[in-house]
Amino acid sequence: MFVQADQGASVRTAAVFRYVDGHLRLVTLAGSQAGLAYGGSTGFVATWACRPAAVPAAAVVTASGPSDASGAYTVTLDYYRFQQASLVPLAHRTVGPGPLDSLPGIRDGVSGEAGCGQARLNP
Fold first, then answer.
1. pLDDT tens digits along 26-41
2. Would you say 109 and 57 are in contact if contact means Cβ atoms under 8 Å apart?
3. 109 contacts: CB under 8 Å, gap ≥ 6
4. Is 101 exposed, middle or buried, given 0-12, 13-18 or 19+ CB atoms closer than 10 A?
5. Strand, coil or helix: what is 37?
């Protein structure tokens, strides 16, 4: 379950909850509450999705990064799997710089949308 937990001027953050042993648990990352950022502006972008095709063992991928003065973005991709109510890092890579539409898309592996199936990110 994904719940919008915070909102700034241009970036929102979703908290993640997961059923573990019949109980809804807050998902953590490195011992702290996991937060999935999404949104952005002309100087920064963030998004996330589920079931990324690039790393089939991953449950979630996040992407974020800045742009330079010419509008070229450098995006960091982090892939995670679930272990009970924790996100565990699987892979990390950086792509760019380049125009945002030329960088690898972050889409749910089933729905093709940003987010996770029915949990779609608001523009």
1. 999 999 999 999 888 7
2. no
3. 49, 50, 51, 52, 53
4. exposed
5. strand
